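A favour between colleagues. Tell me how you read the following sequence-structure pair.

===
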Amino acid sequence: MAGALVIVGMIAGMLSVVPVIEESNYLALIPAHKNQIIVGAVSQFIMIPAYVGFALYLYPTLRKVNEALSLGFLGFRLIAATFHFIGVILLPLFLVLGQEFAQGGAAHLETMGDLLRTARDFVNHVALIISLGLGDLLLFGILYRSRLVPRWLSAWGLLGAGSAMLASFLVLVGLTDVVTPVYLAINAPLALQSLVLAIWLIAKGLDPAREQEAQRV
């Protein structure tokens, strides 16, 4: 189930991308592409139970290895879920701005739209990613120590989480934008690791011998 939820979250994440918002004249285009925003909002909402459910399914086993770190991992997932929900709420506001702009474009609407787009980028690609990254550092630290999955997979996750947080920092300080090859390349290691981890959990699950050791501890 944990592996399946990772796949669901990744698919929902790809569907949550709203290309029209990245266009230069996005306010004028929104009324004709409102379905993109609706699909994006619904998809991002689906990511909430997927991300939190992943943590909840693993928590009973992880807490037997290190209760404090596993609780921290779960806590960061809940914080990330809050940012996901904020991202869901922000999307319908673009529909409102687009409708107002269609009735009579005004400079103040463009300013509001730019602020809203920046706020969404900071929520989704800075606050959300950093909270997920901090949680992932705890998760893969536990997995590396316990060897519930191969250590190379846990080490890959640690490096990927650090890389993703670096990308968010670059966005925060304005050294790169969200939709750029640099940003996507820096996030690629964690995305690929998440897919491999999901397949591993579905196909093999956690190491039963290591899980029994954790239970004895």
In short: The chain has one domain: 2-216. Residues 2-216 form one domain. The chain has a mean pLDDT of 92. The first helix runs from residue 2 to 15.
